[in-house]
Amino acid sequence: MNRELKRLAGLGLLSFVLVPASSPLLPAQNRSQDNNKKEEPAPLKLKVGDPAPDFTLLAFDGKELKKVSLQDYRGKKNVALAFFVFAFTGG
Amino acid sequence: MKAFQQNLTKLEGSDTQVLGVSMDSPFSNFAFAQQNGISFPVLGDWGGPVTRRYGLTQKFDIHGVPMETARRATFLIDQSGKIINEQVDDEAVDPTKTVEACERHKLKN
Hints:
The complex is a heterodimer.
Chain A: H1 2-22, H2 25-37, E1 56-60, E2 65-69, E3 78-83
Antiparallel strand pairs in A: 1-2
Chain B: H1 2-6, H2 8-13, E1 16-22, H3 26-35, E2 42-44, H4 49-53, E3 57-62, E4 65-70, E5 73-77, E6 83-88, H5 96-108
Parallel strand pairs in B: 1-2
Antiparallel strand pairs in B: 3-4, 5-6
């Protein structure tokens, strides 16, 4: 009897743990709702006043690939560096 | 991106070069730029090394498939290479604050 009870209690506990874990959509939805409530975006690693990390990337102008470096603009121009999610997404 | 194009004259008038960056190939970025009338360079950060260096990658798990994408962000970098303004996520869609920061910076110098 005692053993049976223990077994049942064990199963009960186990199912309690398993239910949320086995339905990944549910916690995901809760998480995104929490994110929507949050007004302030998570802080960035780089802060105002920090040096911007140098980089060299390629851009295609329709004819050829060209190197573009942040360093090219040093002492010449400001750079507005706009990271966006993927090409063909909104914004 | 389109919003940046609409503000390009103001930004360039404040001695600012606009550079777009996405984790696509330079070729898909070019096609995207053409279809949307974008005249500034859109750089291909393929594999995301620069996006990662700027602390903008975020990991997703869609149907158990891991994915890494960029957070939307705009950094305004002055001529000495210092970050003078940053906008992130939804606030980075509208470049008004970046334009204002450019114009303030121009007045200071």
